[in-house]
Amino acid sequence: MFQASGGWIEVVAGVMFSGKSEELQRRVRRALIARKRVQVFKSHLDARYGGVHRVSSHDGRMLEAIPAESAAQIGQQIDPQAQVIAVDEAQFLDDGIVPLATSLAERGRRVILAGIDTDFRGEPFGPMPVLMALAEVVDKLHAICVLCGNPASRTQRLINGRPAAYDSPTIMVGGSESYEARCRACHVVPRPDDRQVRLL
Ligand code: ADP
Ligand code: ZN
């Protein structure tokens, strides 16, 4: 594994269901075993999809993810003693996460960011592309395509069981949508005519 004496940034990227949260928790658990002081944040937007993260180490120490709606909220809650800062669902955060992660790394912290790299359209999601560019280490995880069983690199949004159109909002508040992991070939994004990709 990558080791450095100063701080650094690690990104765990991938589609929904690719195991990003599992991987983040594994890294956090190991940092706790190494007796590091760890803080875990989780983008607040995700609250509707599931509960609060709890990460435990074998010596029984438990850690809860602190909900945050913005990079500024994370910045305000950083424990100056924390050596490892982990952030889940980083795709929902604003661009302020970039200077925050950078300054934490420059001040010797290990920063772990997990997030979905592409939105339901298959396009770069929020601050993820910049974070991936600036990180020392990037791991791109894949799920299993629910249609064909190949590695899935795309998140398919379905609304009432049908593929969501290109111009539907990036982040939907509501309940009629659902998501599937799919490969590039099985991923469907109906486009309005003026957005058709022209093959020149
Ligand atoms: P992420 O944080 O990337 O959304 P999680 O860590 O929450 O992923 O969940 C990963 C788990 O989801 C897998 O270990 C597996 O049990 C389950 N899972 C459900 N659907 C799929 C799928 N299509 N491909 C792979 N894993 C899946
Ligand atoms: Zn497929």
Beta strand count:
13
Shape: globular
What structural class do you assign from the helix and strand content? alpha/beta
Bound small molecules, deduplicated: adenosine-5'-diphosphate, zinc ion
Which percent band covers the strand fraction? 25-35%
Helical content class = 10-25%
Q: Enumerate the spans where pLDDT stays under 50 for 5 or more consecutive residues.
A: none
- Mean pLDDT reading: 89
Largest sheet data: 6 strands, parallel
What letter string, H or E per element, gives the SSE order? EHEEEEHEHEHEEEEEE
Kindly, what is the distance between the CA atoms of the first and last residues, rounded to a whole number of angstroms? 43 Å
Q: Work out the radius of gyration.
A: 18 Å
Helix count? 4
**Reading side by side through the largest sheet, how are the strands ordered?**
5-2-6-7-1-8
Q: Which tags fit this structure?
A:
single chain; 200 residues; alpha/beta; 6-stranded parallel β-sheet; 3-stranded antiparallel β-sheet; 13 strands; binds adenosine-5'-diphosphate; binds zinc ion
Tell me what the structure shows.
The protein is α/β, with parallel strands linked by helices. 19% of the residues lie in helices and 28% in strands. It has helices spanning 20-33, 71-77, 97-106, 128-134; strands spanning 8-14, 38-43, 54-56, 62-64, 66-68, 84-88, 110-115, 137-141, 143-144, 151-152, 154-159, 162-163, 177-182. The strands form four sheets. Strands 5-2-6-7-1-8 form a six-stranded parallel β-sheet, sandwiched between helices. A three-stranded antiparallel β-sheet has the order 12-11-13, with no helix packed on it. The N and C termini lie far apart (43 Å).
